[in-house]
Amino acid sequence: MGTMKRNTWQREAVRDALTDSEGFVSAQSLHGALRDAGSSIGLATVYRALADLAGAGDADSLQQDGESLFRACTPDSHHHHLICRECGTTVEIKADAVEQWAKNVATEHGFTQPHHIVDVFGLCPACSST
């Protein structure tokens, strides 16, 4: 039987806080929210829990301005995002054409088991209208 990661109270607290957050958040802001709610969790533990959640597919992560941002995602679904550069509004999207393109490009170059991350940054309708 494979090794299973323990679901510690810290990881569950981070998962719950991430689920309650709107859009993508940094580890620091999530840590601040947990501390404000009375948690004694440490920042390093929040980073570790977020990395575990992202690795397990329970959280999405992206790099913005050199910082890792995270958000809870729909489990067991491969998807991409439209992300507003202004306010951070995020929409999960399906991109079947991207899936086919990634497979084709990988095959053309002799690669197998392709994995990719595609996020599209722009301005949401509300931010576009200001």
UniProtKB/TrEMBL annotation:
<keyword id="KW-0862">Zinc</keyword>
<comment type="subunit">
    <text>Homodimer.</text>
</comment>
<keyword id="KW-0805">Transcription regulation</keyword>
<dbReference type="InterPro" id="IPR036388">
    <property type="entry name" value="WH-like_DNA-bd_sf"/>
</dbReference>
<keyword id="KW-0678">Repressor</keyword>
<protein>
    <submittedName>
        <fullName>Transcriptional repressor</fullName>
    </submittedName>
</protein>
<dbReference type="InterPro" id="IPR002481">
    <property type="entry name" value="FUR"/>
</dbReference>
<dbReference type="Pfam" id="PF01475">
    <property type="entry name" value="FUR"/>
</dbReference>
<comment type="similarity">
    <text>Belongs to the Fur family.</text>
</comment>
<keyword id="KW-0238">DNA-binding</keyword>
<keyword id="KW-0963">Cytoplasm</keyword>
<dbReference type="InterPro" id="IPR036390">
    <property type="entry name" value="WH_DNA-bd_sf"/>
</dbReference>
<keyword id="KW-0804">Transcription</keyword>
<dbReference type="InterPro" id="IPR043135">
    <property type="entry name" value="Fur_C"/>
</dbReference>
<keyword id="KW-0479">Metal-binding</keyword>
